[in-house]
Design goal:
This protein is of the alpha+beta class. Helices cover 50% and strands 16% of the residues.
């Protein structure tokens, strides 16, 4: 693997960096306080190709690699984790699922709208009582002629309220039976499909998280992605790629917190010298920088394997697990370096601290990642 960023990756990084400074940074606390999901920001990103990063150009996307994708999320999350999370969920989950498992007709129908952010995408696997236990989901789809009737509720769904289209994994067999779920695409406005409760979260507050409710929602069989019974296997493959997204998200949050702490430690003086000159602070910075570098390399390794279409279940889980735990540790140390100021909303590190924790939970908890990694090791 080449450790040097390509010229293309550098250009993409600069585009994302400039966009974040101009269109995101001035508003982050306003969105955080009000929990506003700023749809227009995503529409602007769509025009720059940031919402269809991996989508081939023939379907209206940017046709870039996972290296560019990872870099975009890092640069945005360095400024705001919430916006980074929504970019990741839209690109890798909803759009990624249609791209991976849709037929050509389905791709032509939905990908151009998603790639330009004309439509915002949602992805529904989790339910109230089936987080990691996805084989026991209660949301069902029953075949009725050439249609399917979906009934049930999906919880903790990014863009569950504002999303224009949702990829939904439903149970089509017996609970916990093999091959018991199937994937469908449901468009907003379909009768019986509505939004439920919006969650009031600790962090990632500008990224909308809400219920999706299906009440005898009828959709045509042409909205089915892949074979009947293949839903869970599809979801696991999508989550392999999704874990790269969360690793990149965590990496961005960690870098944002570290850079803020590094700058502050050189500006803040105590006992007539910058606090960075004290070993208690400088060693913290050394640990933060080292762990970030290690998390970055793990994430790059997963991106490289994904680009080359090699198996990367273990590597993506390692990257996600390590990077997310690093983000929590780095954000915690950043608050400590800022001292009392770090505990106030006048400085950026308290938000990094709140946003970081989601990375150890979403798209498979740290404990689930360890199960995935250990299973791969013990094959």
């Amino acid at each position: 693997m080449d450790f040097q960023q390509s010229e293309l990756t550098q250009q993409v990084a600069q585009t994302a960096r400039d966009f974040a400074q101009l269109h995101i940074k001035p508003f982050i606390m306003e969105w955080d306080e009000s929990q506003e999901f700023p749809v227009e920001v995503f529409k602007k990103m769509g025009k720059l190709g940031l919402m269809g990063v991996l989508v081939p150009e023939e379907y209206g996307g940017a046709g870039l690699s996972y290296f560019e994708y990872k870099t975009i999320i890092v640069e945005i999350a360095k400024v705001c984790g919430s916006i980074g999370l929504s970019v990741a969920a839209h690109n890798s989950l909803c759009t990624g699922h249609i791209m991976a498992f849709g037929n050509d007709e389905q791709k032509k129908k939905w990908l151009p709208k998603l790639a330009t952010a004309e439509w915002i995408g949602a992805w529904g696997l989790t339910e109230a009582n089936t987080g990691s236990d996805a084989g026991n989901m209660a949301c069902t789809a029953v075949k009725d002629g050439d249609e399917w009737i979906i009934s049930g509720t999906k919880n903790w769904i990014t863009h569950g309220k504002s999303g224009d289209v949702a990829v939904v994994i439903c149970r089509t067999g017996e609970p916990r039976a093999r091959n018991n779920s199937t994937t469908f695409v449901v468009e907003r406005g379909t009768k019986g499909f509505s939004a439920g409760k919006k969650e009031n979260k600790l962090g990632m507050r500008a990224s909308e998280t809400a219920e999706m409710v299906f009440d005898n929602c009828r959709i045509p069989d042409s909205n089915r992605l892949g074979e009947v019974g293949a839903g869970f296997k599809q979801a696991m493959k999508i989550l392999d790629g999704g874990r790269i997204s969360i690793a990149a998200l965590a990496l961005g949050i960690a870098k944002g917190a570290y850079e803020a702490a590094l700058q502050y430690s050189q500006e803040r003086h105590q006992f007539d010298k910058p606090i960075s000159s004290f070993q208690g602070i400088s060693f913290k910075l050394a640990d933060m920088a080292t762990e970030i570098e290690a998390a970055d390399l793990l994430t790059m390794q997963a991106c490289d394997l994904k680009n080359r279409k090699q198996p990367m279940t273990k590597e993506s889980a390692m990257a996600k697990y390590y990077a997310s735990e690093v983000a929590v540790r780095v954000a915690n140390d950043a608050v400590q370096i800022f001292g009392g100021y770090g505990y106030t909303k006048d400085f950026p590190v308290e938000k990094f601290y709140r946003d970081a924790k989601l990375c150890t939970i979403g798209e498979g908890t740290s404990e689930i990642q360890k199960i995935v990694i250990s299973r791969e090791l013990l094959k």
